[in-house]
Amino acid sequence: MSLEEIHSLGKKPLEHNGTLSSSTSKENKTSKKAYIESYGCQMNFADSEVVASILTKEGYTITEQLDQASLVLVNTCSIREKAEQTVRKRLEYFNSKKKEHSEMTVGVLGCMAERLKHKFLEEEKIVDLVVGPDAYKDIPNLLQEVANEKEAVNVLLSKEETYGDIAPVRLNSNGVSAFVSITRGCDNMCTFCVVPFTRGRERSRDPKSILEEVADLAAKGYKEITLLGQNVDSYLWYGGGLKKDFDKASPLQQKTALRFDKLLSLVAGAHPKIRIRFSTSNPQDMSLEVLQVMAKHENICKYIHLPVQSGSNAVLEKMNRQHTREEYFELIDSIREIIPNCGISHDMIAGFPGETEADHQDTLDLMDYVKYDFGFMFAYSERPGTLAARKIEDDVPESVKKRRLNEIIQKQQAHSLYRTQEFLGKTVCVLIEKTSKRSNTHWSGRTTQNTVIVFPKEKYTVGDFVDVKINDCTSATLLGEAVQLSNQI
Ligand code: SAH
Ligand code: F3S
Prior knowledge:
Layout: H1 3-7, E1 33-38, H2 42-57, E2 61-62, E3 71-76, H3 81-100, E4 105-110, H4 111-116, H5 119-124, E5 129-131, H6 139-147, E6 152-154, E7 177-181, E8 183-184, H7 195-199, E9 203-204, H8 207-219, E10 224-228, E11 236-237, H9 251-255, E12 258-259, H10 260-270, E13 275-279, H11 288-296, E14 303-305, H12 313-318, H13 325-338, E15 343-350, H14 357-370, E16 374-379, H15 387-391, H16 398-422, E17 427-435, E18 442-446, E19 452-456, E20 465-473, E21 477-485
Parallel strand pairs: 1-2, 1-3, 3-4, 4-5, 5-6, 7-10, 10-13, 14-15, 15-16, 19-21
Antiparallel strand pairs: 8-9, 11-12, 17-18, 17-20, 18-19, 20-21
Helix pairs in contact: 8-10, 10-11, 14-16
Residues 186, 188-190, 193, 195-196, 230-231, 282 line the site of FE3-S4 cluster (F3S).
């Protein structure tokens, strides 16, 4: 799945990939079919695989066919208002379907469930089931509540839940790439962001269960694993518990705590023939040790998604980002020094409250310094309950936000082209992921820098590492020809 797809909020039906477990359910298994649709970040897609696993144990099969489903679940995103509007439209559509099939149960999962809680049942009455991101293990009980015509809501946030004990059922999988979540929640409290409210406090998953899941994927033939978290660099395992309670851990726990650089090194070292990626990195938490581990292991992809949100110190401060633009430049310099040819991407927000033309120029100027390979760019969207919504007036007019966003996008396109042109004439190792969207006779894969590359299929197949000579490019895609199977990664 490309990052563009992950961040896009379009409809994303998930394919059947599960197998029936030996369920003790009394119901006829074949009548229990669940349809799951996911929106938003990679974490939501990974969470849907946890939900699919829980449902499979209950005797459900996962279907792609909405009309066949007795249970319809939407894993939702609250990050911007538009994301919520998209989900609302889908819920209305499912509700109209429900009128045709009265036995259909519709449930809302994820961040919107957490944010709107009982409202869905009380005011809106468009769903039967509301489940927050930490309550998925309660779904079987909640389905029973629905059957008993009781209110079925669980939006409790947890201090411990990491779903480390659940083997996800891979959905929409190409059998090559998979996500493995390593942290949940976020403690950063960026003032614009709803995630700390919807996903709770930051906690890390037991490294043993992470390594087991990765080993299982390796045994199944997966070739690329992405370690996931809202802020992977702040991974901290000291025997369980919230990141914020680390101070209260015993001296031994503090001394033997495992951080992200070590985890990354363990995962990469255990599987030298598998590509390891991770997302997302927060500049304030990214350490030089992580960069050194990346440089040391050939199989850790040379790519960092490093959201910055703004190039202006004044705006960064109002956003409660814990670094300055100068510190960000230092980090970029370290990346370039320790990992030459590292791909770097960003997230940027245009029109944060109080942003002046000079602040906006600082953002464009920062982009010129880094020349990102690509980026995800958004107009500021006020989210109820966040600090920015409570304390700062959303005073940049919509038209100005749009204009600034367009300027940011145009600059990014120029930089993306600059970066793809740097590849011309080179031969690079590519992992084949799928047939190209534009042509049945071409493969689509990615370089270690995460740049998409398309080339004629010839004798190669999905999951192969292939050396590809690059002879053309657009700003988003490299075009080339396969030379041979690669002995690189
Ligand atoms: N750390 C997270 C960030 C999740 S949100 C991660 O894993 O990627 C993804 C991006 O959405 C943020 O980096 C930010 O650029 C954007 N975003 C978050 N809240 C926003 C808001 N209120 N308005 C506009 N964009 C927002
Ligand atoms: Fe959101 Fe900032 Fe965390 S963007 S997810 S609060 S790092």
